[in-house]
Amino acid sequence: MSMLTPPGMGGQYKITGDKYPRMRPARRRGRLAFAGVACATVLGVLGWGTLQLIDVFTGGDEASAAGTAAGCRVTPARASASPAAVAVPKPAQITVNVLNATTRKGLAQQTADELKKRGFRIGDVSNAPAQFDKKVDGSGVLLGPAAALKGALPVLGTQLPAAERRTDAARKGATVDLIIGNGFKGLAKPADADAALAGLATPRPTPAAEKKGC
Fold first, then answer.
1. Which of 79, 115, 129, 159 sits between 20 and 30 A of 54, alpha carbons compared?
2. Distance CA 175, CA 196 (A)
3. pLDDT tens per residue, the chain (214 residues)?
């Protein structure tokens, strides 16, 4: 009986040949697969943690956070297309009546002279009618026909921004009134008025956010 014959088999079964049985542990493919999955999981967790740290130190995207809280997907705000230049009348095309509704004498003439220096055409310079006389608490009232609401009144308003704007549907012609009130402290500075006038002709585009998934 050979030394390699298992005990109890006697001589009936013998191991022959010049190769021995391969005596090694079971295949390790299962362990390798498990190790690969574990590595991928660890890398994924590390990547997620890195992104969270970046959001913490950079402040994140507030718009995205707000959209997520509301159940919406918000794309970054972008400026809308630049609006076309608006055709507004020039000061030389506007005739202004300067009316004094205060008790300060000479205020209408002084204001009219300043407006003339700034290119406006001057009409009547006098005291305000009874419906406005001593009844205007603010800096003034700009009054004109309905057609002046988007033309002459905004242009005149660049000279006195705090003035109230009113229209009279029954009024004829294109002349507008500047009625000086008790709160009047003077016209806007020429540089500020020029900047406001330039802004009327070329409005700035406004940014707008786009929401999706709401």
1. 79
2. 21
3. 445 555 555 555 455 555 555 555 555 555 666 666 666 665 665 666 565 655 655 555 554 444 444 555 545 555 455 555 568 999 999 999 999 999 999 999 999 999 999 999 999 999 999 999 999 999 999 999 999 999 999 999 999 999 999 999 999 999 999 999 999 999 999 999 999 999 998 766 655 544 455 5
Number of domains in the chain: 2
Domain that holds residue 36: 29-76
Q: What is the pTM of this model?
A: 0.58
Q: Check whether residue 98 and residue 190 sit in a common domain.
A: yes
Measuring CA to CA, which residue among 57, 159, 161, 168 is closest to residue 113? 159
